[in-house]
Amino acid sequence: MYARRITAAVAGAAGLLAVLIGLPVALLIVQRALCEAFDAATAVTRPLSPQVLLLAAVAAGWLLWTWLVIATIADIAAALTRSSRRPQLLPAPLRAVVTALASSVIAAVTTTDPAAAAAPSPVTVFTHAANPTATPLTPVAPNAVTALPTLASTVSATPQATSPPPRTVTVRSGDCLWNIAKQQLGDSHRWPELFNANKGRVQANGYALTNPNELHIGWTLTLPTTAAATPAASEAEPADPTNTNAPAETAPATPGPSDTAATKPSDTTSPAPPSGTATATSTADSVATDHDTERHDDQHPGVRLPSQGWISLSLAATIAAIAGLLRLQRRRHARLHTPIPVQTGPTRTPVPAGLAIADSGCRDGTLNRAPKTHNDEARSGPAAVASIGVNAAGTEISLFTLPHCGLALNGPGAVAVARAVLGSTLATILGNPAERPVIITTPGLLARLFPDGPEVTGLDPLGTTYDGERLLVLADTTAAVTRAEEELIGRRRLLDTYNAESITDFNSRTDHAESQPPCILLIEADSRYTGRVAAVAAQSAALQLHIVVLGNLDGLPTVTVTGAGTVAHTDSKVLLGGRLATLTDADLRSLLTMIADAAARPEAGTDIGEFTNAKPHDKMPAADLHPVPDLPTSTTDSPTPVRLTVLGPVTLTTDAGPITTGMRTGSYAVLALLAAYPHGRTLDQITADLHPDIDPAAAIKRVRTDINTTRRVLRAATGNTTAMFIEHDPASHRYRIDPNLVDVDLWRMLAAIGRANTAADDPTALTALHEAADLYAGDFAENQDRAWITDYATTHRHQILSVYARIAELLEPDQPDAAIAALETAARLDPVNEELYQRIMRIHGRHHRPDAVRRTLRRLEAVLAELGDAEPSDTTRRLAERQLRPTPAGARP
Predict the structure, then answer these.
(1) What 3 state SS string does 24-52 have?
(2) Percentage of residues of the chain with pLDDT beyond 70
(3) Other Cβ atoms closer than 10 A to 343
């Protein structure tokens, strides 16, 4: 080993001599030849002759050599003195070459004998990152293998003679730490060892592994050197569950990490290692999104959309909040039908596919479970209002808090950023109405943002307003600038009248009738309006007038953005090194559609009389009846050994009691999904439902593990060592719950609803309806913190509301108080459903209880006030008025 160090030192010294001595010798030879052939007359008459140009090049070579000598001496001196910082006097590629040569010499001369070479060297070897924006010098352990930039040689200290050389693996497309640990170490749960072995090590592209969710294609990872069992010895590969003729899957003899799910990085208790295709992360790709290579590291936390657009976490949270509001509004307007629908599966989502990742990531916590980084403290502030991106430190930036007067967007991503500014601003539909900004723009700019031409959902037929005057589309840039000037004059007069210093101070006062919201002028650049725009911009801070110009305009800070939104150049220190949100045409249309649907507005509603007078079953056409659903049933008379509850928390129970240990979180999710699909789902369908945002190969492995764990735990709990519990049909490739072994409460509830729909008389129907109501112990899979659950829970919640509504219909003639009690129970399950309150008020009104009618209406108003300032529909108010009218003498309820 010592001989190798000597050889490396000789080679490094030769390289340094070749650079420091060979270069000046070559320059002297060329200079001498040029001087001998130099013709002064030619040089005077032809100043740009080849001779003059060559002499100038030689002079530049001498300057470069002098600079190289100074930089090399400074670099070697810093290394010998173990300085933590080195002067960066050379470009990164050239600096890396000098560092590699110097380090080999230093590593040899600081170890004088073989014994010393075997021990860890006290000298820290530094490697320069190729990325000039990354940490300039990264200390690397002497015994670590470090990938240097492509222009440098690999520098590594030699391990002890008795240890084999460390094994390495190259990261490929689709890899994640979980998969690499499984393939190379035989155990996926050893991914933390793999992460710790490579954490902070600078790779060939200048980045280092600091986040287990972020890998770059082409990185070289060193495998841990600690002893570990081979895959065959540590854990046998589970048998393919698709082969139902195979014996029980091989599993560890004792419960391991897979049993408790305590160390698997995909569970909520620990950060998930990445898949190669993860989209909702603090991205760290090195993939080119346009003609330039875009590098997105953990300094730019956000959400990558399927369209390759990018939004900040605050905008993603706003989209999720709007989606939640839309779901509540759908629940509010849901009709309660008789007969009761008995279908399973999810309710149609209100979120377009392009924005679904933002909604699901915020709802299931994916965007909040990222591993801690050095920028977490900077990112821990409150969410920005109308966030337009993040700065270099990862802190979100609001257009309303910029210290300068506005933005002039330029570059390939300027139009996409302008779309994001428009969408993020209009998305502020929640909270105080006085703080919801107004945008002034022109048809010409909207034509650039929406090049395909169809009307944007939410604009009125004249194309002049949007969502209650929040988007003002004026005729042209002249009209838009004039409107901004009118705003300036009006706001300045208000401040003078009320002796306020700014619009913020003015809005905080209570002695005026109307607050002034932020106002944004969004126009295309036009030099004719430079002075007028500058005059408005000068008052922007005090008057809450913000300007965004598409193109260059004097007087505004220019921001040049790439196609991915990365700030390539800017006059603004706040945005330097940051990234701005980008949206495609389709994504902005989808967002505006959601905003328009969620905006509070007067609604006509649906009259209760339209659907309460249901026809008797014997007079209803057969096509209108919902028969008993085709649900799997047990083919044996013996009771099932396992009972699965998915209405409420997902639980498994045997004759010995609830199963409380051994099950994975993912196993419960698989069981809940299969309960929602009684006839089964294929493996691809299960992974698409449960893990839509990770690599399909990794998701399939995860689902297989969840299924195997379920089988193993249930076998141990029941003593049946050959039962599958989750069957697999080779013909259809579907997995389904075995009804002979597992009893599912959801299936029993749907079967009871089906019997109630086809009952021949009211007592039979009531018995079946009460059975269904008793089985509903809570929302579907309510303890599963996963986004996919929400729309499934809506389906079954609406079914149980219809059950209680039908019970009230059957009880009302003879037992009105019992009917009201049933509807009150339904209102507790879903307090936003407006029809429930209509039914309650109608019964109270028929029995001359005006105070109860008023209380019910006030309770509905209070509930809806929390849904973005919503109010009861006109129909509900008219119904309440009818119930409050005096009843003629002698009338009977």
Answers:
(1) HHHHHHHHHHHHHCCCHHHHHHCCCCHHH
(2) 68
(3) 10
